[in-house]
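Our platform keeps sequence and structure together, in a single record for each protein. Such a record has a labelled line for the sequence and another for the backbone structure tokens. The tokens are whole numbers drawn from a learned vocabulary of local backbone shapes. The remainder of this section carries one protein's record, kept here as part of the documentation:
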Amino acid sequence: MMAIAEIILVVIWVAKIKQRSDVSCRLYKRAREQHGESTENLPEETYVHINRDFCDGMVTTVTAVHHFIWRHVYASMQAVQTPMSKLRFVSPDKESSMSTLWQEQVFKQIFSREMLQEEASDIEKTKEHERERYDFDPTMFYENRFWNQIVVNKNHRKLYILELKLSSDRNKDFLRVKEDKANKQHRSIIEALRVAAPEWTFEQINFVAGRHGVVVEDDFYNKPEKLNVQAGERDKILLAHVQHICEAHDTVMRSYYQQIHGSPGADTTTSIENIEEQVYV
């Protein structure tokens, strides 16, 4: 119940009951110390912080459970396509980047790599905020762009980009917020794709869920329908999807507690296939 209310005993809550004065993230501090980096100006150890991949102490676990969720939901939809479906799920077991997609013959037939690089580079150069954040190389930014899943229909010349976003269930507007974030993430590359291959249609489909298993049913059911999933299988997919989200959240919480009270690093006994073998997958 405390986890659902997002008031588990992270440092920020211990401080509220006067049991601790330092509210900086202990896992983030430990990770920086291990890398010989400064431990000044550390982020607060909040529930939201430990559930995001920018916490250095939780990044392996959070990344792995995110991949665990999307792998299952996409694989389940791929397995129950309608008999006449012409869709092809390009990489159901791993993320794809633009640099790895060129290993697939179908993409070489859709557009020229050089043309797409040129268009993407021109679009990315207009994004001032990216250049402010780091030494911005638009070509490398384009090549290293990751997508959860790509689905292609060669007969209808249509390509879908699938993206999974997790959010706090406490934000009543979480669906719109995460939809906007996901669309912004891939907007420039989709613009470039449309210029490079104007005879094709490119569409992004986002799957948004709360970390405790909250899924907006009407929104979710529209997505499998677009992806030619058999109508009678959609309830089963949603049920399994919610279960996997809850399992993933449980894994994150157990990894957090094991690291705080036990061993450093994502503990290998924490499940979700032993934190997906401790690697970025």
